[in-house]
Amino acid sequence: MAHPARSRNWQGPWPKTPGRLFGTFLVRLYQLTLSGFVGNTCRHLPTCSEYAYEAIARHGLWAGGWMGLFRVTRCGPGGTHGIDRVPEILPARLKWWRPWRYWRVNSEG
């Protein structure tokens, strides 16, 4: 019998490194405190905080943090909307020294 999800965040396996734990802790802290004041206005599925949590858990604090930050900026007026999943594997064009390329991580493969 499968256990029900205890959290709305990603439940898959991920390495529990200090950076990832710190990043996911910050996202979870936001979800438990400030998220209620901001309201449920995200235009994407999964929500921006769920996306950031999964991105940090899968790809680490540096790459996942940039992906989460850029996802939040795309959520504003005139931004994107719809289903936007965290990629399982990052494209080779993404390098740590070029964080601006994380802006549209799901476009162009």
What does this structure look like?
The protein is mainly alpha-helical and 109 residues long. The chain has one domain. 42% of the residues lie in helices and 4% in strands. It has a two-stranded parallel sheet with strand order 1-2. α1 crosses α3 (48-74). The chain is globular and about 35 Å long. The N and C termini lie far apart (37 Å). 24% of the residues are buried. Could be involved in insertion of integral membrane proteins into the membrane. It is found in: Cell membrane. It is a peripheral membrane protein.
Mean model confidence by pLDDT? 86
Query: Radius of gyration, Cα only, in angstroms?
Result: 14 Å
Number of domains: 1
Helix/strand/pairing category: mainly alpha
- Which strand order spans the largest sheet, edge to edge or round the barrel? 1-2
Distance between the termini: 37 Å
- Overall, the morphology is globular
Pfam family, one: YidD
Family: Belongs to the UPF0161 family.
Membrane topology: Peripheral membrane protein
Main location: membrane
